[in-house]
Structure formats: C-alpha cells, structure tokens
Amino acid sequence: MKRRTFLAGTTAVSVPAMTAATAMTAAPAAAASPSAAPLSGADTAATLRLVIDGVPHDLPPTTVYQTTIEATGTAGRTRVTMAGAYSEFSVAFPSPYVPHLARVSVWLTGVTPKKGNLWLKIFDQDNEEWGTLASRVDPTGFDGRTRVTFEPQRLARMAWSGVADGRLTYPLRRLVLVFFPDDKQSADPFVFDVESVEVAGDGGPVSTWSRAGALELTSGADRVLIDDRGRLLDWTSGGRIQSPGVLPLAVYYDNGTGVFSDEAEVDVARVAADEAAVSLTVPGFFTAELTVRLRAGRLELRPTAIRNLWSRPILSVACPEAAYRVIPADGTMLGIAPKWGGLAHTRSVLAGGFYANYGMPTATHDLILFEEDDSALGVYSVQPASVRPYRPTQFGFVGGRARNEALTGLMHRVDAWIAPGGSERLPATRLAAGESAFDLFAAYRADNGMNTWRGLRDKLGPRLRSGLADSVHLKVDLWQPTGGTSATGRPEAAFEYLRAVPGGPYSVELASYYSDGQHDHHYPDFLTFDYLGGPAEFQRLIDTIHDRGHYASAYTNPTWWHPDSRAVAALGGVERIGIRDRRGKLVTKTHTNNLGYLIGGWRKAPRALILDQLRTFRDTYGMDMMFQDEIARREYDYAADFCAPPYAYCEELVEQTAQSAAILPIGTEGVGGDRIFQSLTSSLGFYLNTMQGDRASTYDGPNRNGVVVQQWPLGTAVMHDKVAFYPHNLDRSVDTTENLSWALAFGLNLHYQAQHMTADFRAGRGFELLKGLSLVQKRVAGRYFGRAMTAFRYLTEDLKVSRTAFDGGVEIVASHDLQPRALPLPGGQGTVTLAPHGFVASEHGTPTYALIDDAHHRPGYLARWTDGRFVPELAWYPADLAGYRSDSVHADLRLTATPAELPAGGTTRAALVLAAWDGTPPDLDGADIAWELDGRPVAQLVTDADGSVWLTPEHGGATGWATVRAVVTRDGVPAYSGVALVEITA
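Request: output the structure for the sequence above.
Response:
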C-alpha cells in the first residue's frame, strides 16, 4: 500500500503577499528574480493540514510570494490568489519524507482560471532543489473539481546527488507550488480553491511487494503472478525473470490529470491457466476491464472496456503504466528508443533514473526495448493495418525507481479519446521477451501483420528493379544547382551538372523546380514551372536525367501548403481545406521563414489535386518516382474539424500514401510511423544523428551526466526488407567518413547533394567524393538493398565497433573511431587495419570491400578483396573525417586551370599549374605525373615541348564541363592534386 500525504486548507486566515531576502531558485527569465518570505509573528496563524499516513498536522505555509491564502468558508478548502508574473507558496513536511515519490496531485477548483504553467518544486536535504515538475493550466481544462498531477519520473529538470550513478536523493523536506501566467502583463490573478495536495509514495522496493495469495498464470515454462492490487509480479520467460513488477494501467485526461491503478478497487479472476480478468474501478474517474494473457515469450494486456466516469474526456491510457526491469550488475544493457532513427542509452544512464517519452507516428515504430548480452525485453501495441483507426501511441523509459533495487522500466500509452460517459475497447499491448532485439522485431512484425506487406523489390517496376540498388540518391536543387553564388538562380547550371557528373547511375531528386524556384514557397503549385521557363524546360530536364541512365524523381509536399499559392486559391483558401486542432484553430507551421497550413487531405478536393499531380508527373513527364515530404513525421491531430473523425489526420496519411503509391513509387522524409511503410518505396530521414550539426555532439561520447548515449539502427532494422532507407534528403550529404561508416552499419543507402559541388571543388575534391560514394553503393550498399537486417551489435564496451548482418550472408563491421583500428577479417583470414571510421564488408564469410588505412593518405583507400588481399581502388576524399562537415580534408596539391572557361571549337587553351596550397611551387624533380581527364569528350590535354600541360577544346564545337587532376608519384607513393573544372561554352 502506498503511503499518502494530504495537504488541506483548514483555517480562515489571510496571508498577504510578502517579499524577503531568501533567494528562490529557477525563476523564469521573463520575470524578476523573486524572493519568497518565511512567515513570522501573526502570519504563522494561517495553517494547512498535512496528513501523513492518517496522522494530521496543522502547519502554516512556509513561504509565500505574490500570493494570498485565505479561507473559503467551506471546511477543508483554502483559497489561493496568485497575482504576479511569478507567484508561489510552499509548505514544509513536519519531518523528513522518506518514501520515494510516485506522484503529487493537487485537487483544486478554478474560481478565476487563467492560462499558464503550474510548477511543483520539490526540495530535499538542506533545502536543495530536487526537481521541478510542470503541468499546464487552461480555463478549458477546468470543469468543477480538477486534479493536476505531477509525476516525479517526468522531471523537467533535476539536480543530481553527485553520486556516480546519478540516483536522486531523499528524504524530502518541502513542496513549492509556482504559477507562471501566459500573459505576464495582465493584472488579472489566478484564483483557485485548494482542496488537497496528495503525495503518494511508490510502494517501496518491488522486491518487497507481497506475493502472498497472488494468482499464478502459467504457459509452458512461462509464469506470472497477479496480486490483489492488479500488479503483475515476477513474469518469468526464457529461464529468467523478465520483469519483477508491472503496474497495469493509468488513465490520462485531456486537462493533464492522471489517475492510476494503485488507486483502484481491484478484482482479479482466473479465466484459464494462462489468462485472467482484472477489473479496476476508481470511483468518479473510470472503470477498466483488463484481460491478462500469458503466452510463450509474451505477456499481453488488453483493455476490453475503459469507461469514463468523469466530466473530462480521457485522452490516453497507459497500459502498462510501468514494466520494471532489473539493471544487471555486469555485462551490457542498452535502453533502445526510436528517437531520430534510434538511440541506445547505456546502463549508467538507466541506473540514474533516466526518463524519456516518445510517440508514434512521429517515431518510426511503436516499439521500445531493453537489450542485454543474451536477453531483450520490449513493449508494443497490436494494431495491424487492417484494424482502423490506428490509435497513435506514446512510450518511454520509466525513471522513477532510481534506488538500490537497480530498476528501470518501460511504459506504453495508446490514445483513447473517450468522451464522458463513453466506453472504448483499446488495442492489446504486448510485452515481448527474446534473446536479442531482433527476436522482438520478429514478434512486432508478426503480431501486426507486417510480414505480409510487399517486399521492397516487389514495389519496384522492371526499370527501377534493374538499377536502383546501385544508385546513390542525388538531390539537385534548381535554385542552387551546384552551391555558391555563381549558380544561384541559374537553373541551366543543373543541365551541365547532370551531363558532367561521373559514376552512376543516380536516383536524382529535383527540388525548387516549381513556381518561383524558391524552396518552401507557393506549395502545392508543383506543376507551375515559371522559374524554369515552362513545361518544356522541365521535360528537357527529365530527358537529360534519363539520357544519362539515371532515375528521375521530384520533391512535392502534400501536407503543408501556402495561402498565396494558385492551387490553394482555386480550392477556396486555407479556411476550407486546412486542418484544425482541438481548440478549432487552423494548424500552421513555419519552414525557412514561410508560414504554411497543414492540409486535411481526407477532403475530396485536396486529395484529388494530390493524386492528379502524381498522374501528370508520371504520364506527361515520365517520372520514375516521387518524393512526398512530411507524410511520415507529421504530428497527429484529433481533428476538432469539419466532420472529421477522430484520428482522421493519421488515417488520411496512411490512405493517401497507399493511393499515391498506386500511381508512382513514393519516397518520403523519415523518421515516421511505419504504418505507411507498407506503401513506401524509400524513407529519407534522420536515421544518422551524427549528420545533424546541432545533435552531433550528443553521440559517440559522454553527455553532461558523464554517461554514453549512442546511435542504434532501430529505425532501419525492423523494415529493411520492405523499404530503402537513406539519410535525410534535405539536410546534407554522406560527406564525412564517420557518416559513411554509420550509414553502412545502419543499412542505409548513400546520398549526396549537388549544391555541395562548389565546396568540393574549392577543396580540390571535385567529384572524387561522389565517385567514392558511387563505388560504395555498388560494392556494398547495393548488396544489402532490400534484404532483411538480421543482427546488430556493438562489439566493444566503448561502442566504437559495430557488426551488422543481413540476409544473403552480407555483413558489415564498422569502426566508429577517429583513429585507425585493426580488426580481424571473417573466416580467420588475418586482420585489416581500417582507416579512421573505416569499414569492412563481407559476404558468406569472405571479405569483399573495405576502407583501409594508408600511411600517406589519412582518409584511406576504398579497396576490393582480390586474391586474398585488399587492393586499393580509389583514394577516399571526404569533406571531413568526423563531426559536422568542415571541409578540412583537401587534396595534396592545388591545381589551377587558367582560364576556367574556354570557347567551344576555339584555339584558346587553359594552362594547368600545380602548386602547394600556400601557393609555393612544388618539387617535382624525379616524380612521375599522370593526368586524369574526366567528362564528356569536350576537351583534350596537350603537352608542350617544355613539359607544360594545357587543356584545349575538342574540335567540333562540343560544349560542357571537363574536369582534370594530376597524380604525382614519387618512390611509389602517390600524391593527388585538386580537381580543376573548365567550362567549354558556346
């Protein structure tokens, strides 16, 4: 039984607002730093009743600031008036409070409610702030008596004890209630009656929960106990206790109030040896009928009926509220969450009381898990695509039990939206156990019917099937075709780029080709080609792509449109087609400083426009694929809208994607809900956290608490045979060695942005980076394209080496270390020293390709396995070895072509001059110099009698780009010049 503390007003004494010198912590920047005064003299006559375990204590409030406390005339109620931009009052425990908190709930009735944030501060030991809990106050949330709940496991900010494991300190000394109004200039106060403040302990260590008289369910060797509080104890599967304790249920209302199963009247009845019925009733709030089923490796909780007894709608139901897991003293334990593709939190993070909350469809999968050396535990809901509507979910790690019992936990919620007096049956939630994360993936897919979805190759027509696997994704922005200022606003530069780019084939995605050529302008006017000069120019662009043997796709956005677009005006404006939030307001978002509106695609006219545009791209222009932005990562909406059903937005995206995919193969921005993966061909998302500059420092090293958080391929592993995964198309290229090794470890295909070309040539790399990506796509990534991922593990305690396996015997061992690293080759074939952040690929136990170390070329060489050894194929030239692109890697020598533009068919020549990067002449005595000329046959190299080398146009007047570089070899060691580009113009 949890211990409870009640704080109830009992006296009719007014306490005026006071100011003193005692400094308060954590004041908002917008308010003056407040001070709360301790009460003295006659002021101490004001008392509040604090009841601990049934023992009453009449105590005065400890401090007040910008707050008045007075009687209401009703026994057990105190009126509180909070009048400032920062207002607070506090009360001290009569003696230190030892039990670990489960929650603090404030029962109140709004007299003059005001929008703002209500905070609860908790102080421990010598009045050091232990944590701050935030809740929202909104007049729409007040309906008579209201409970605002604060859960310590959801601390918005916490002060650590200083112990290495980061456990929170106890006992507790003081509670402070703080209010921040939204409108800090308004003189109107926030007035409410406090009925009670309830402090609930967490029931003590799970190991002390009584097993006496508990009902036992069995299924083969699996077993679980259900006690008379409805708690599930000692769930055993696979020869070990998977969870020592599971709290079955919690209900959350639309105003933030949470009500929990430990408050319920409970009845437990056996249905079968492996099944029980659990009834939970919290008078005035809800009744719940819950079926508990035990199967081999599964523990299922199915809410068959949740009835709402309160006056507010039920927003979501947590089931389970928490499933605890013992943190092992030794070995590896990772908490793996679907955040930005996947994050792995180490044992030290979890032991510190780590809490995090995620949700789908914004996350890739409705799945969160723990993985140890030989065991895994995860939680997910069972919602096959055939069951509608799909109910969005939230899930996370539970960090409230950071104590000597060394527990962490999992939580899972499903959106319910049950009206007052209503009742709903909700999807089952399953806790699944296995030997590895991939056992859980198999269970998640099987239970949700995903194995029947079409595989990736079955989604492709014959032309794409023949070459997409070998194609780097190449984004070409028509506003900035090659980057820099010289080509900005000149779409014709894209034509020359596409004719000149080496390697391939490429999957070319066109962007900023529409309307005025500006990204995030005038959506959805994607078929207006004013910037290009009309439809004929767009067709010429597609023909150029196809003539080079590449694949053509284009950027569109069917979810976020602009009020100034021609198409929106023709549809009657955003008022007719936009979606609305629960308060009836149109939902807007701003991208690149442009305001747009989220569109209700379930309406007939917008949906018809989206699909008609796709047919035009296919039938008129011959597109091979299309990119639809933001159909995966959009937040869901409850659609308080024109006749829209609950969850209409989420359902609309799934349905719209299926209809779009029936016209053309569809790719989208990730990371987002996997229910659309049944229709998607490709997902281009934030699967590599290290590719985002503002997030890169979070990974591959200690965070602020001295513990490691690392990437993990949860976003790609579950559906690797169904979807082609790429890095985010709108962000940056795979342009560092670090991100190349991560991409291969995570089963990604490779991606490059054409607007990086100017920077690449400035550093002397030219097209060499793109050549390298093209080779790796063909030699490595193309081999796992469309194949199921079957294993992923970090092989070292520092998480610096990973191994990934795929169907077909493909295996990637990747180094995530900035230093060269020697690793064993498969099949006992010796060792190989990898370059910084290098990799080695193999098939069926035989090495195939690697990025190997070289004493003279620090980025290393891409090398093929030939006759029992790695033979260099190409010098690897990334923009950087690690971190966010800094262009720190450049060629060994500078090559200048003067002039850089020559008339076609003329006699003017460009002089090719080698120099060091500081401009001094290089020592070329005794060196062999080989010249490499790439591109279409528009130019040739000429050597004069004095040894000088020139580039001259070919006869015949052909135009285009020519690229040239020199390889200077001395004593068998090559040095590479930069790549010079010469434009042959008409």
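The chain is about 10% helix and 40% strand.
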